[in-house]
Amino acid sequence: MDRDAHQLAGPLMRVAVVGGGWAGLAAAVRACELGAQVHLYEMAARPGGRARSLDGGEPSLDNGQHILIGAYADTLALMRRVGADPERLLLRLPLRLSYPDGDRLALGRGPTALAFTRAVLTAPRWPWAARLSLLRRLLRWRVRGFHAADDMTVAGLCEGLHALPWREFVAPLCVAALNTPPERASAAVFLRVLRDALFSGPGGADLLLPRQGLGALLPEPALRWLHAQGAVVQRGHRVQGLRPAGVPGGWLLDEDPRPFDAVLLCCSSQEAARLTQPQAPAWSAQATGLSFEPIVTVYLTHPGARLPAPMLALHEGPDAPAQFAFDLGQLGLAPGHFSLVISGAAPWLKRGLQATSRLALHQARQALGWGDGGQIHQVIAEKRATFSCTPGLRRPPARVAPGLWAAGDYVQGPYPATLEGAVKAGLAAAEAALGQSTVAPTFRS
Known about the structure:
Strand content: 15-25%
Oligomer: single chain
Helix content: 25-40%
C-alpha cells in the first residue's frame, strides 16, 4: 500500500460503498488501498451489477455478452491488482471486423493508427472510393483533435461518408460502443472512444473476449481481495435510507448507529436517485431524468457448428436484429453455444421478446448457413443496460454533497456506458472522497 495515501485517508476512516458492480468494486478496492475501513453493500446475491455471471444453468452464462478492448487500461490494471490475470482470462485479438462472407478490416500488429490505415487501404471488399472516403474522414477528425459539437449526432458527423464504411464499420462500431443508434448517438463521445482506441498506443484497439464468465474477470477476485483486506461485505442488503450524521461530511446508513466519513453511491442511477432525493433533490432529479437503452442477448445451441471467427459482425435488416455473433466454444466457454447481441434493442422489444429471439435465430440460420439447425437456449433482456448516449446529454456530477459521492458509468465523464467508464468512475470517486477533494473527480485519460 502507498504509505502517503494511507496517511491521507487516515487509518480509521469509515467508507460505505453502496453497490457491488464494477464501479463499486473499483471504489472499494481503491478505498482499501488508501487506508479506509470499507463496508460494501450489494443487494444482489452475486456481484457484478449489469456485467455479471448468472446463477445456475448449464452451461453457466452471463447476463449478456460483454467485450473489452486493449485501451481499457484502468480495468486491466484493477484486474491484476486483485489477482485476476487478463492474459489468461481474456482472448486478445487484433481488431478484425469480419462478416460471414469475409473480412472488412483486419488490423495487424504495431502502432494502432498505422495498422488501421494499412487495414483500410487493403480492405478486400471495399472499392478505392470507399477506402479513401473513410481515410479522409479519419484524417479530418484527427486534425480537429477528435472533437465534435455537443449537439452533433454520429450520423451528422458522417454525412457524405461512403455507404460501405458507414454501414459496415462506423454504424456497427457506434451501436456497439454507445448502445445508441447513430441517428441519436453523440458524435463527441463516439470520437473520444475512437481516439482512445486508435491513438492510445499499440494494442489499444485489440478485442479482449472473455474466456470465462464475467464473475471471474473482476467481481469474484475483487470480493476475495476485499475480504483479505478486512473489508466488510454484505450481500443481499438493499440500503433503505441515507441521512446526515450531524458531523461535517458524515452520513448514517439504515440502522447503523456509527457514522461513515464518506459514502460512495455505486449503485444504479435509479437507486442513487432514490437514496439522495431527501438530501439532494436537484441531483436526484438529474439522475432520474436519464433515459436508457436495452440490450438483448440471444443464446443459441448448435452442436458441432463453428463460426469462421470467435466474433462476427452481422448485417442488420428489417427482420434481422442482431449486430454481432460470438462462438462461445472458440472462447473455451461452451462448445456448440453461440450468442447473438442486439444493441439499441428498443425497436425490437416493441415486437416482443419472443418474436425478437425468433427473428435472431432466423437471422443466424440465414447468415451462417445453418439451414434449419440451431435452437434458442436462453434469451436475456437488460432493459436498462446503458444510458442513452445522446448529443448534449447532461449527466449528474460525481459529487452529490459533502462526504457523498456517486460513481457509475452514468456520471459526468467523457465515455459512454462501458466497463472502463464504470471502473474509472469508481476509482476517481474513491480518490476524491478520501482526499477530501472539494471538486468533482475527473476521469483520467
